[in-house]
Amino acid sequence: MKAGPFESARLLIRAPTPDDAPALYEAYRDPGVMRFWSSPPHGSVAETVDYVTPHAGDQWRQWVIVEKASNAAIGTLAAGERRRGVMEIGYLLSAAASGRGYAREAVSALIDLLFAEGARRIFADTDPDNVRSIALLTELGFQREGLLRAEWETHIGVRDSIIWGLLRDEWPACPQKAGETG
Prior knowledge:
Layout (H helix, E strand, L loop, with lengths): L5 E2 L3 E4 L6 H8 L2 H4 L10 H8 L7 E8 L4 E12 L2 E8 L8 H15 L4 E6 L4 H9 L3 E12 L2 E11 L15
Parallel strand pairs: 5-6
Antiparallel strand pairs: 1-2, 2-3, 3-4, 4-5, 6-8, 7-8
């Protein structure tokens, strides 16, 4: 599925290309960044190329997050439709880009896009120990909806998963909530 470009104040968010792989590899090989990811840190740039390259029949749209000021790839976003109107999101940001509000800016822009496209619900699935991701989702208005025990078998063992959800009318930037049409 094709991922069209969009942007925010400081970020360009576009489909990844193989040329992004060396910069993204820095994030995907980092054990700290990948600790709560569903796969282990990448062992090569080629693995990152394969991971971020869309594949035929893939139901996930993928984007690379590019810092406008430096033109550097600093992370990734993904969205997949689970049921009509229900989107799951995922995101990853390099350690070097953390702490500057880029994750909040990128995920907010993605939420805007998905609700504008007609999603009624967006959800994310996080490891209970992923404090930074939980803080981001909470700041964005997501509500904890459930705990799935022993949900994922990952490189750090079998892990629980917390499901976080956000409805269109709960999103402050949603045009329908502001009384606009469209």
